[in-house]
Amino acid sequence: MEIEELIKESNETARKQGLIWTWKDVARQLMWATSELGEAFEAWRHDDFDHVLEEIADCFITLADLIGDIDKEGKFISILKNKLEYNKTRPRYHGAPKP
């Protein structure tokens, strides 16, 4: 499944459940995604690999749903591709702790 399809499906599922986000809801949705990552961190602390992946999936679904509601001009995929290309030009370990 392509990322565009995942965004569409996440958004359609949320809409069917009555969840429709606007620009004013962005901060709440970003914090919701952050809370899912917090749950992933807790699962990692308990060495529960499957639960880590499940919580990351929840985060992705939350962000995909938000993108589906606020990206009316369809810019996200282009921005994502540009960001991926830009990251290839960054120095090694840019912004991350060295192992």
Structural class by SSE content: mainly alpha
Counted by DSSP, the helix tally is 4
How far apart, in Å, are the first and last alpha carbons?
33 Å
Radius of gyration: 15 Å
Unreliable stretches, pLDDT < 50, 5 or more residues? none
Order of helices and strands: HHHH
How much of the sequence is in beta strands? under 5%
Topology, number of strands:
0
**In one word, what is the shape?**
globular
Number of domains: 1
Main sheet characteristics: none
Helicity level, as a percent range? Answer: 55-70%
Overall mean pLDDT stands at: 92
Task: Provide an overview of this structure.
This protein is an all-alpha fold and 99 residues long. It has one domain. Helix 2 runs antiparallel to helix 3. The mean pLDDT is 92.
In short:
The protein is mainly α and 99 residues long. The chain is 69% helix and 0% strand.
